[in-house]
Amino acid sequence: MFVERTYRKTIAAEDLEKFRVCVGQSDILVYVGEIREGERGDLNLKAFTERLLFKYRGQIKEYISRDPLFLASLKPYPIFQDAPQIVKSMALAGQMAGTGPMAAVAGAIAEFVGRDLLKVVDEVILENGGDIFISTNLQRKIGIFAGDSPFSGRLAMLIKAEATPLGICTSSGTVGSSLSFGTADAVVITSKNSALADAVATGIGNIVKSHTDIPQAIEEAKQIPGVLGVVVIKGSKMGVWGEVELVR
Fold first, then answer.
1. Helices vs strands, H then E, count in the chain
2. Which residues lie below 8 Å from residue 117, measured CB to CB, with a gap of 6+?
3. CATH number of residue 154's parent domain
4. Max Cα–Cα distance, the chain, nearest Å
């Protein structure tokens, strides 16, 4: 299903090179900094990123061909010992968040592609369907898109350079086509592990069916090792915990 990512019209990082890479269901917006000293100056970063995306998507698809339940499970799922590292990352994230491993797929791809890009450039901001991997030399603002909530488009998370690399992942029961059993307008999780942030955003999003569920959602997110910050938005109500600085 094609989903127009209208929030991308509000994104600006004019000091960085911007390009978009699409492979299968993956539609990634990429901002990169300067090519590192010692790397080829003529390196085509878009083509390089596309190859990385093919590589990691291919590893996941090949594993699913061996173990189809990995794709279908909505609960933590055991995997083969010889699974690729990205598959192991997804499975562990699902186990910690209480979700199926595919709840972590967008965040995992963002981080694995992003970390490989960081070997050749000095800054990366990679957005994959609302899930972000960021490593930056400057302070940045990451806007929060929360559908019809009055907070949507009015708030941003202030991300300091020294806090990165960082995963910032969002789940919503009212925006987009991702599976959610809740109706939160936005659940945003920050973690050093983007796969974990993605899975936890999904798991916590499943809890929120009313604004009265926000305290429980925050409390459950706090208990998961590796979660650094949480924002939960439902209509005109919001809960925030952890290493989160919100700005206009």
1. 6, 11
2. 30, 32, 45, 48, 49, 52, 124, 126
3. 3.10.520.10
4. 54
Compute how many other C-beta atoms are within 10 angstroms of the C-beta atom of residue 15.
12
Question: Looking at the 3D structure of the chain, how many domains does it have?
Answer: 1
Place of tokens 């599976």: 179
Q: Is the dihedral of CA 29, 21, 84, 178 positive or negative?
A: positive
Instruction: Answer yes or no: is 126 within a domain.
Output: yes
Give the torsion through C-alpha atoms of 205, 210, 212, 216, to 10 deg: -20
The per-residue pLDDT for range 219-231, each reduced to its tens digit, is 999 999 999 999 9
- Judge whether residue 2 has pLDDT over 50: no
Q: Around 86, how many Cα atoms within 13 Å sit in the side-chain half-sphere?
A: 26
Q: Give the pLDDT of residue 198.
A: 97
Domain of residue 181, residue span: 14-247
- Full-model pTM: 0.91
- Lateral strand order in the sheet of 140-143: 140-143, 156-159, 246-247
Name the token pair of 219.
């409390």
* pLDDT at residue number 221: 96
Using DSSP's 3-state secondary structure scheme, residue 139 falls into coil
Query: What are 16-63's pLDDT values in tens digits?
Result: 999 999 998 889 999 999 998 877 777 899 999 999 999 999 999 999
161-to-81, 98, 107, 125, 165 alpha-carbon distances in Å:
36, 31, 20, 12, 8
Residue 81 and residue 63 in contact, taking contact as beta carbons nearer than 8 Å? no
Spell 146-168 as b/e; 16+ CB within 10 A means b.
bbebebbeebebebeeebbbbbb
